[in-house]
Amino acid sequence: MKKVIVIYIDGGGGHRAAARALDDVIRMQRLPWRVELVNADEVLEPADPAVWFLGVRSSVIYNWLLGRDWMIGTKQLLPIIHLIFRLLHPAQVFLLKRRWSKLQPDLVVSVVPHLNRAFYDSLRRENTRVPFVTILTDLADYPPRFWIERQQPHFTCGTRTAVRQAEQIAPLAEGIWPVSGMIVHPKFYESNPIDRAQERRKLGLDPDLPTGLVLFGGYGSHAMLKVAERIEQARMRLQLIFLCGRNAALFHKLQSLNLTYLTHVQGFTENVVYFMMLSDFLIGKPGPGSISEALATRLPVILHTSWRTLAHERFNARWIEEQGVGTAIKRIQDLPSAIDQMLRPATYSAMRRRIEALNNRAVFEIPPILEQILVPRKESISPERDERSLARNERAT
Question: Residue 372 sits in a domain of what CATH number?
Fold first, then answer.
């Protein structure tokens, strides 16, 4: 039985979610593989500067900053972060090579940005015949050295923009595989009907009012408080469901607001799809995971973008407007007018039709691609040839 390693990180919620979704769909498709999920944060902890100086992993700090909207200046910070990763590269390769030696994988799949050079180099030093696949969980790369490195692995890309980037940045890649979107867990495609009116009543909501789902990622955002207050000021005839994720402080603050419209405030839940099925539209940040989940459940989206928006997520807001499946606002103040415009019958129906046409099935398309990659090659790569390729790649980077 082939062993497939899917490596992820805990920074944000999307990478772990993508790894779990891929694992679950491989089981659903009954492929004869043993899948193991590996947390790169755990493997690389000895080479994590945050652990050295603060005693906690970098991902913990990242998530803490996300929940407080303190992730600013990412465009300027990324070159510094990438420089640090280059300095730590030998240590990262050493730690990863040791893990590959222990795991003995037949295929390694990454749903992680920033670290793919270390993943690839360490795997090549351990076993030149094991294929490496990078699955972009963003709608596009944010070059340089974010998702796509000048190396020779396989890439799966969920948009035409990402495919073009892979072709330009990694022309020697073994394979560039277009898929129809981002990885979304199979449960978002299940067609189990629910009685929306009855389920809304259970949450204390009106069965007939337009319902918005406010979701700013797995760690929430204080912007959700501004959303709640702005809708209160506008006296709109609608109701909102707030998903706070792992942000307990935000959950309690939202619950304590004295709002005159109907709301349901929910802490961390694994059942996001349930709340999406009860909603008519999504209000959130331009994260690729929540956007893709909303579109899978046929929800148009309203995205809040600002100078605080992560640099690599800004493309996503443009993309949803280009596709005609939502709108982006720069100020929470503009939210009521964006909702009014979206809920016009003609506008809303047109967005729903365009969402239907997208038909993202990436999570089901990727396992057959991995199966093709796992097929033994007619010509095995000799260590000498692979070492020459590796040296050439290192000079290029």
Answer: 3.40.50.2300
